[in-house]
Design a protein that fits this description.
This protein is mainly α. The protein has one domain (2-422). 79% of the residues lie in helices and 0% in strands. The chain has helices at 2-15, 20-34, 41-50, 57-70, 73-85, 91-107, 110-127, 132-143, 153-162, 166-194, 206-231, 237-254, 260-293, 296-307, 311-326, 331-348, 353-368, 375-384, 388-411, 414-422. The radius of gyration is 22 Å and the shape is globular.
């Protein structure tokens, strides 16, 4: 009963638009004071949250993605991919998804991916006769690849919360990430083939392809350096994020795409997002501390373990809960609130924490494109200056694709686990 009362109060706070970090932290402090417990643990928890080497990767990846966003390198990347496959059936849609996948491997940010590629792809695709709602949905869904394909900020945070190996989580993200790209590409090609509004793009000459590829090579170089340094064991995720930021600065300045004004804007935007993330993390840490003392995670875990014996039904129930919560909470809040509650039950059921991290992230991806708080829906709405209803209409088929992928991942767990454990 206590758990439902606390959840109800939290939902009320969020509905009246109290910032998530303050809602979590404030409710946590109130619970500790009501218990009553000494509040000296609160500043200790706050300091302990920030005193994390792994969390350094978050501002570094944000800085890197914002520098690339301000330098408008997405245009080069999209142009290169388009020159090679734009003439295929649905080629621009395919180019959009692949560009999102590559940019995701650079930035680790869903918002940066959707905004960067969307700015370039939306006018190009609508000009070629693609229905607007399809274009908006494609880009909103393509942007979600930013939190699946490594480096991924949510996977870093999940690894910190669950004390799981972040490099293994990154490796596990490759299979589901590529699988989603294949499904998105297939849907795009089939949709374009059946659409009467679609106009094919003329095949680029080899000279045009070579020129476009040369322009995109710096971005590919940054992505390879960041990912390669992690997988080769040369650098930790935090160190590779720093390397990526420095490389993005050097490359964009050399290309003449970045100046001090744009750099200041990138730093300012990154600082705002970093502060928001860290406040949410700090608030969630206090809230998690409080509900742990109230024995809520333990009680919920015990309830789930005792009443749901089948691991399949157990994961299905968790999936439904996360899907429902995703309608009301943004992705980072879902991660910080639900993982501490669910993780004891996950370990009791002997479910691999690396696999569960990827399952969780797919459901977070889905939450990014479901109303009323789907962040990518609002990003694409702002970039395209479109009606939110059109973006939602185009995104629903991709929601079904993502949910199908979550189901497939349960029955085919090696989709995520083969690379980290067998290669």
């Amino acid at each position: 009963m206590t758990a439902f009362i606390i959840l109800f109060i939290l939902i009320i706070l969020l509905v009246v638009r109290v910032p998530v970090g303050f809602a979590l932290g404030g409710l946590g402090v109130a619970l500790l004071a009501y218990f009553p417990l000494p509040l000296v643990g609160v500043p200790e928890r706050l300091y302990g949250t920030m005193d994390s080497f792994e969390l350094l990767a978050v501002p570094m990846f944000l800085l890197m993605s914002n520098v690339l966003l301000k330098a408008n390198v997405g245009k080069d990347l999209f142009g290169a991919v388009q020159s090679w496959i734009g003439h295929w059936p649905g080629g621009l849609g395919v180019a959009t998804i692949i560009s999102c996948g590559i940019f995701s491997a650079v930035s680790g940010s869903s918002v940066a991916t959707a905004a960067t590629i969307g700015t370039v792809a939306i006018p190009e695709m609508t000009k070629r006769g693609y229905p607007k709602h399809f274009v908006y949905g494609l880009l909103a869904a393509g942007g979600t690849l930013g939190i699946m394909i490594p480096p991924s900020i949510p996977l870093i945070i999940y690894g910190i919360i669950s004390e799981s190996s972040i490099p293994k989580l990154f490796l596990a993200g490759i299979g589901p990430g590529l699988f989603l790209i294949v499904l998105f590409v297939s849907y795009s090609m089939i949709y374009s083939k059946l659409s009467k509004q679609y106009h094919p793009v003329k095949k680029a000459t080899f000279k045009e392809r070579l020129k476009a590829t040369k322009m995109a090579l710096p971005t590919i170089f940054i992505a390879t350096s960041v990912i390669g340094s992690i997988y080769a064991g040369i650098a930790t995720p935090s160190e590779s994020a720093g390397v990526g930021f420095v490389l993005s600065l050097v490359v964009t300045f050399v290309m003449g795409r970045l100046n001090l004004t744009k750099l200041k804007e990138a730093v300012y935007d990154s600082a705002k997002t970093t502060i928001m993330i860290f406040i949410i993390i700090a608030g969630a840490k206090v809230f998690s501390y409080a509900i742990t003392l109230y024995m809520i995670p333990q009680n919920i875990s015990e309830l789930l373990v005792e009443n749901i014996k089948s691991p399949t039904l157990f994961i299905f129930a968790i999936g439904l809960v996360l899907l429902f919560i995703g309608f009301f909470l943004e992705s980072l809040s879902m991660l910080l609130i639900m993982v501490p509650v669910l993780f004891p039950a996950i370990m009791d059921k002997m479910i691999d924490p690396i696999w569960f991290g990827l399952f969780f992230v797919i459901l977070i991806e889905t939450a990014l494109i479901t109303p009323p708080v789907g962040m990518n829906l609002f990003i694409i709405q702002a970039v395209a200056k479109a009606k939110l209803g059109d973006v939602v209409k185009g995104a629903w088929p991709f929601v079904l694709i993502m949910l199908s992928t979550a189901v497939i991942l349960w029955f085919w767990q090696d989709l995520a686990l083969y690379i980290p454990y067998h290669l």
